[in-house]
């Protein structure tokens, strides 16, 4: 038995390693496209600005190589691969992952339902964290809990990093594709490239963005081979150049050459750091794409394939440049001059494909981060299209796609050279890295329970390195670095105003909600009638009656025979387990047929379409009725049901429709009973499938019968449309933010995801002016 168990364990380990290697191979095409194409423009960006010259002594090229090597080693390998990747939020990474980790740990946040200590979310598996913090960490947590300005600073940092990621989504395709196509300068005779370079770049970019709505699942299998071929190509060329031109180039990896470089070039060398910084573009993508792969697979791919290939590529370019000093101008220094002329055309084709793959990954990442912002109410609701039913996270956002394309073309046509585009990209990249460093220092203390000394050491060491690069990038403001500042300011303004307006609207709803007793007493006073069907009242509240419904029912005294107050709640965890998603409760007595349903989604969860959502909602209510939990939520006095009285419905009660096919909650398997007891309507179009030998009383049967009839009659959505207006006497900034910017964003944003495909005939919109 021991031998057999030993063989089984060995087989499991072998299978585990095999799957990790497959994930590592796949990650090459998704994660590393951007950093793999950085050799196209790093040396060119470092020398093109005129800050440093390529002298006969080679101090400059050796110094640049040394800086590239140690920057790549310290920032990408040491910081991201060995430290940051460990700070996953239930397997997810990125700026919002760090932010949500911190907010949950300190139980402090600015968005309703995000990072708060609401009892409603304490049941979530990811939220359970009762570990005590040591005194220094507890002091930090107390400061974050008590100081609202610190909470604002945390959120502002998260939104700043996100806005720079969006800016990177504009700049990376422009830089990568333009740099790849720039090889035409050496491959074409005379000056023909002047008339070809820009049009070819624009055509590739337009094609790249135009094909986004098809998704990448059909061609995604080509991404990893393309990046592998590209890495093999640049590393082979690098080895060739090292052997042929300068076998001793490895000596330039010594930190001494960094010191010598700075000593000789001084201010010019410091300003050239903005171009050298580009060797670590894409490092943040390793962390942001953590949810699609595993830590070990990303580490294996980088340390075993990407890192050695990049080092060989940079060494090979430096070896060639060190033996060639007859360049007409410094901006002619670049990747393609080190490529042997006989293979320049094939390398050009591979480079363009690799640039497209790297750009695709950045665009997809931009869609993903905007989707996270929408989930956390930090960005106006936009249309999110899921391009693949099998691949998690494959989304497409039409509005954002075309905005990115227009901005990307504007940057390409406006600058027309790598130097300024690279300056812009460098500032965006280093800003996101600084945000990550600051958040990581808090994670080390609050989440990992390490000594404050370790957090300070991490912050000071990496913060100092990144601050130097940030200053070198910022000084290029007039040479292209203004672009990410303008872009990030625009997106940051949109996100901050949307967050501010959403918060004010939520506060208005809380302050103006009416009690349940008010609703229950309306019948005799207004002569309210009940109409057939199920009415869904969308609300942000988890208790009480929203003011917009009281406004509706006062003017139109009728509502449906089954009324559901529906709250779609975003929580600061990446995923909510299906069995923890639906919370169902009862409002008032059973005969009122009033329910409250809270549906919880994580910031990376994919929300269901309207049809599947409707089925899951109805089956959850039916299971709530059948299970008997509803008996605990009836209040004879009509008082409000406290939040903790809501029941978690882990599996909805399945039902059959006319064709006899069992349908129910799509998030859990539905079991067909051999001889089920059926509760059906007279038309037999909908029947709930009950477990065998289920003991149910006539009252439950009647309630399920009525739910069945209401389901057959149809479902209507009552949506609130709040017209936000700043109160008289408000400051000028508040009036601009609420009356103009937020109102413009509200008019052009979309409704809740579940209602996106609901027919207009089934939707009733109720307008109301909110003075905030």
Automatic annotation (TrEMBL):
K+ potassium transporter integral membrane domain: which residues? 23-520
- Tell me where in this chain the K+ potassium transporter C-terminal domain is found: 533-771
Which Pfam families does the protein's record reference? K_trans (PF02705), K_trans_C (PF22776)
Q: Where in the cell is it found?
A: Membrane
Q: Which UniProt keywords apply?
A: Ion transport, Membrane, Potassium, Potassium transport, Transmembrane, Transmembrane helix, Transport
Protein family per UniProt: Belongs to the HAK/KUP transporter (TC 2.A.72.3) family.
The protein's predominant localisation is membrane
Q: Which InterPro entries match?
A: K+_transporter, K_trans_C, K_trans_N
Q: Would you name any one GO CC term?
A: membrane
Membrane topology type: Multi-pass membrane protein
Q: Name one GO molecular function term.
A: potassium ion transmembrane transporter activity
- Source species taxonomy: Eukaryota, Viridiplantae, Streptophyta, Embryophyta, Tracheophyta
Q: Which NCBIfam families match?
A: kup
**Source organism of the structure:** Miscanthus lutarioriparius
Record carries keyword Ion transport: yes
What is the name attached to this protein's record?
Potassium transporter
Q: What stretches pass through the bilayer?
A: 21-41, 61-82, 152-175, 195-214, 221-247, 267-288, 300-321, 395-415, 427-446, 452-470, 482-501
Job description of the protein: Potassium transporter.
């Amino acid at each position: 038995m021991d031998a057999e168990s030993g063989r089984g364990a060995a087989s499991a380990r072998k299978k585990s390693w095999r799957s990790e290697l497959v994930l590592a191979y796949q990650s090459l095409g998704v994660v590393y496209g951007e950093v793999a194409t950085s050799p196209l423009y790093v040396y060119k960006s470092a020398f093109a600005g005129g800050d440093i010259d390529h002298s006969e002594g080679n101090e400059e090229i050796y110094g640049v190589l040394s800086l590239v090597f140690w920057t790549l080693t310290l920032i990408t390998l040491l910081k991201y691969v060995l430290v940051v990747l460990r700070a996953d939020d239930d397997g997810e990474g990125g700026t919002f992952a760090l932010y949500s980790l911190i907010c949950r740990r300190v139980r402090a946040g600015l968005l309703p339902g995000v990072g708060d200590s609401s009892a409603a979310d304490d049941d979530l598996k990811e939220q359970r964290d009762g570990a005590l913090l040591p005194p220094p960490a507890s002091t930090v947590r107390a400061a974050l809990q008590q100081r609202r300005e610190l909470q604002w600073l945390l959120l502002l940092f998260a939104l700043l990093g996100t806005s720079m990621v969006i800016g990177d989504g504009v700049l990376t395709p422009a830089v990568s594709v333009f740099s790849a196509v720039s090889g035409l300068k050496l491959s074409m005779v005379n000056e023909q490239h002047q008339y070809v370079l820009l049009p070819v770049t624009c055509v590739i970019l337009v094609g790249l963005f135009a094909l986004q709505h098809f998704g990448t699942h059909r061609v995604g299998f080509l991404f990893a081979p393309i990046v592998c071929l590209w890495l093999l190509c640049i590393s082979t060329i690098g080895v060739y150049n090292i052997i042929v031109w300068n076998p001793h180039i490895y000596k330039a990896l010594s930190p001494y050459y960094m010191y010598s470089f700075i000593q000789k070039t001084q201010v010019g060398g410091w300003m050239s750091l903005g171009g050298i910084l580009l060797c670590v573009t894409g490092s943040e993508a390793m962390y942001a794409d953590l949810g699609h792969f595993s830590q070990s697979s990303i580490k294996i791919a980088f340390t075993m394939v990407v890192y050695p290939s990049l080092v060989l590529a940079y060494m090979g370019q430096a070896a060639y440049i060190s033996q060639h000093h007859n360049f007409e101008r410094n901006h002619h220094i670049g990747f393609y001059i080190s490529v042997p002329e006989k293979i320049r055309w094939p390398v050009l084709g591979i480079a363009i494909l690799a640039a497209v793959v790297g750009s695709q990954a950045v665009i997809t990442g931009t869609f993903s981060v905007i989707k996270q912002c929408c989930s956390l109410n930090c960005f106006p609701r936009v249309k999110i299209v899921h391009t693949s039913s099998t691949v998690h996270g494959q989304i497409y956002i039409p509005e954002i796609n075309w905005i990115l394309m227009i901005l990307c073309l504007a940057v390409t046509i406006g600058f027309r050279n790598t130097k300024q585009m690279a300056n812009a990209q460098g500032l965006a990249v280093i800003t996101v890295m600084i945000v990550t460093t600051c958040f990581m220092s808090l994670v080390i203390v609050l989440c990992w329970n390490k000594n404050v000394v370790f957090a300070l050491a991490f912050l000071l060491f990496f913060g100092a390195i990144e601050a130097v690069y940030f200053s070198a990038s910022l000084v290029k403001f007039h040479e292209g670095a203004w672009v990410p500042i303008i872009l990030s300011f625009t997106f940051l303004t949109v996100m901050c105003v949307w967050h501010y307006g959403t918060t004010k609207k939520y506060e208005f709803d809380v302050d103006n909600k009416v009690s349940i007793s008010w609703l229950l007493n309306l019948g005799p006073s207004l002569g309210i009638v009940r109409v057939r069907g199920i009415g869904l009242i969308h609300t942000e509240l988890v208790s009480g009656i929203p003011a917009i419904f009281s406004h509706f029912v006062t003017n139109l005294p009728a509502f449906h025979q089954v009324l559901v107050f529906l709250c779609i709640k975003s929580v600061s965890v990446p995923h909510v387990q299906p069995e923890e998603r639906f919370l169902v409760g009862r409002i008032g007595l059973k005969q009122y047929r009033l329910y409250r349903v809270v549906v919880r989604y994580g910031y990376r969860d994919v929300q269901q379409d309207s049809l599947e959502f409707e089925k899951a909602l109805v089956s959850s209510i039916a299971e709530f009725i059948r299970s008997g939990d509803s008996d605990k939520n009836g209040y004879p006095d009509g008082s409000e049901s406290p939040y903790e009285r809501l029941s978690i419905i882990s599996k909805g009660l399945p039902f059959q429709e006319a064709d006899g096919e069992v349908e129910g909650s799509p998030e859990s398997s539905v079991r067909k009973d051999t001889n089920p007891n059926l509760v059906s309507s007279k038309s037999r179009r909908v029947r709930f499938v009950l477990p065998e030998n289920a003991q149910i009383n006539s009252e439950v049967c009647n309630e399920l019968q009525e739910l069945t009839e209401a389901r057959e009659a149809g479902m209507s959505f009552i949506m609130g449309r709040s017209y936000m207006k700043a109160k008289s006497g408000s400051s000028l900034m508040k009036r601009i933010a609420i009356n103009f910017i937020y109102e413009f964003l509200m008019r052009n944003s979309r409704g809740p995801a579940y209602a996106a495909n609901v027919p207009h005939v089934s939707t009733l919109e109720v307008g109301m002016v909110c003075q905030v």
